[in-house]
Every structure is written in C-alpha cells, then in structure tokens.
Amino acid sequence: METGKDTIEKIESLVKDSFLVNVDGITYSARDLKAVRDEPTCQPLSLNSLQGLADYINHEFKPDAGKNTYFLSIIDETKIAVYSNILGKNRKREALAVCELRGDLREYPFDRFLSQEDFIIKIQSLFGTTDDKDYLLSYAGAVRDDTEVNSTDDGITQSVTIKSGISGALVKESKTKPIVTLKPYRTFREVEQVESAYLFRVRKGAAPEFALFEADGGAWKLTAVERIKSWLREHIDDKDFVILA
C-alpha cells in the first residue's frame, strides 16, 4: 500500500504535537514550548442572588481567613465572582463561586413601540414604583381603541390631539412628558433599582402605540455596581474582605 505525502505529513504533525521535552525537571510541549502542568481546580459554585453569595462567603470564610487570599470582583450589574489570588506554577486565579442574575428574568423591551395593552402590562410588572410610572399608566390607559390620534413632534415635546365620541366633536390636546424617570428591574433584586431617564413617545397606526428610549447613556450601570458593593459590604461578616468594583 502506497502512503501519500499528505498522510506522512499528518503523521509527522501528530508526533510533533504530542512530543514532550523535560528541562530541569519541568515538562514542556515541543509544539509551543509551554510548560505542561496538571493543577486541578474546583468547579465554581453557581449562585443567583446576593443573599446566597453573602451566605456562602460568611460560611466558607471566617473573619481574616480570606485576607490577602480571596476577593470579590463585581464584573457588572448582573455578575459577581469570588476569586483566589494568583496560585500555582501556572500563575492563575481560581474562581470559587459565580453569582449571576438569572437569565430568564424578563426585561422591558426598550426602543420598541408596543400596543396599548402590552405597554401597560410591561410598565406595571417590570418597573418599580415612581411618580412617572403612575403617569405612564394613567396616560396610556386613557387612550381608547376608537381614539383618533394626530400628533406633532418637535423633537423635544410631543403634542397629541385626541378626538373622542361618535362625531369627533370633543377634542383634547395633551402634551406628553418628553422625559420620564423610571426604575426598571435589571439588576439583583436585593438592591434598590436604579432610576434612569427615558424618552417617551406615542405613535399612531391602526391603534396608538407607545415606546420608551433610554436617555442616560448607560450611566445607571455604574450606580448599580456601587449599590451592589454597598449591599455586600453590609452583609458580609468580614469587613476586610476585598470587594473590587
């Protein structure tokens, strides 16, 4: 049986990839000259609440036990991890626990126009209590299916003319609040949800539609991280436990 050139080159490649070299008691891979070390690590504990994370730390790490050895890293407003300091010859950090906001929690669909019913349901269920939440519910609830909506928008405020009744004789002109302040649920529930500014708009179609557009440039995320840090500092027994945000 004749062996082709491609087959020979493949065999040579496999041999090279698996070839190991020992230098001064350290085993290296001949492929990339990196040391080959087996340093087992644990599977990170998976958590989904700040209370669960605080309970874990208070149970596993007594005061001063984790000093200069372990630390908390608040990665963003939805994810936190407990890491070890650099360990072993591979100089890697070990993740002991990861706390992440559940991905199946519903969020409001910003930047999208919604029907009246869908808008009211989502405002009612996905936001904390604020005066502007009550305003939006009242405003959207006042619009009926047979309402004729004609609006003028100057880019700052939006005037909506609502004609009601069979003859359309009753006319009401209402200016929407251009910016509303709301508290959507979007970080861990143990902390006070962050208020943010949103642009409120109404659009006519077969039926009136409503939308909210984010207007704070994502600044709320920094505030959320600080609130998470403050909550953890208060609920972790070891007040010297390092928390990075």
UniProtKB/TrEMBL annotation:
Source taxon at top rank: Bacteria
The protein, known as: Phage protein
